[in-house]
TrEMBL record:
This is TraC. Keywords: Plasmid. InterPro entries: Conjugal_Transfer_TraC, TraC. Residues 86-97 have a biased composition (Low complexity). The gene is traC. Residues 70-97 are annotated as: Disordered. Pfam families: TraC. The keyword Phosphoprotein does not apply. The lineage of its organism: Bacteria, Pseudomonadati, Pseudomonadota, Alphaproteobacteria, Hyphomicrobiales.
Length: 97
């Protein structure tokens, strides 16, 4: 039996149940991600900054793009031991203040 024939035999109710289960899993995963990112943002001091949501979203998009670019393996490049742009130093100072 090929894959297509197997899918055709699965009742629609079972498929709907599976979709609902996967949607719940996705919702839980998104909640975990949001809580993790929120905790990190608060530790970095973003909770104390008055900033428009659109501006903050733009900054997050820039950070995401930077890390996506770093995720691609660069030939002959050694992994960084400290975050670029002194981010580690800034985080260290804010934690001490």
């Amino acid at each position: 039996m090929n894959k297509e024939a197997t899918l055709m035999k699965k009742p629609t109710a079972k498929i709907r149940e599976e979709i609902a289960r996967l949607q719940e899993q996705l919702k839980q995963a998104e909640t975990r991600d949001a809580e993790r990112i929120g905790r990190i943002a608060l530790r970095a001091g973003l909770g104390e900054i008055e900033i428009e949501e659109g501006e903050l979203l733009s900054a997050f998009e820039e950070v995401a793009a930077r890390f996506r670019a770093q995720a691609r393996p660069a030939q002959g490049r050694k992994p960084a031991t400290t975050p670029p742009n002194g981010a580690g130093e800034a985080a260290g100072r804010s934690a001490e203040a």
